[in-house]
Amino acid sequence: MSKSQCEEILAHLKSGKRITPMDALGLFGCFRLSARILDLKDEGHAIKKEIVHNNGKRFAEYYMEEV
Considering its fold, how many domains does the chain have in total? Predict the structure, then answer.
């Protein structure tokens, strides 16, 4: 049985990596990263967001601070 997108994203974040919507699409086939992040936050996970500006584009980058 494969992991859910939430489980995969959480494992990615817990490993100390950051994730953007393009990362989520490429790595996990997730088109709605912000919705999955909200699901994880609702479960009590402390996920932070930073807005990144790159080549005239603006997007969110999510991460977890080390404990």
Answer: 1
Per-residue pLDDT of the chain (67 residues; tens, 9 = 90+): 457 999 999 999 999 999 999 999 999 999 999 999 999 999 999 999 999 999 999 999 999 987 5
Q: What pTM was computed for the model? A: 0.89
Distances (CA, A) of 29 to 4, 24, 25, 38: 11, 6, 4, 17
H/E stretch holding 57: strand 57-63
Q: What are the residues facing 50 on neighbouring strands?
A: 61
Domain span at 34: 5-63
30 neighbors 24 (Cβ within 8 angstroms): yes
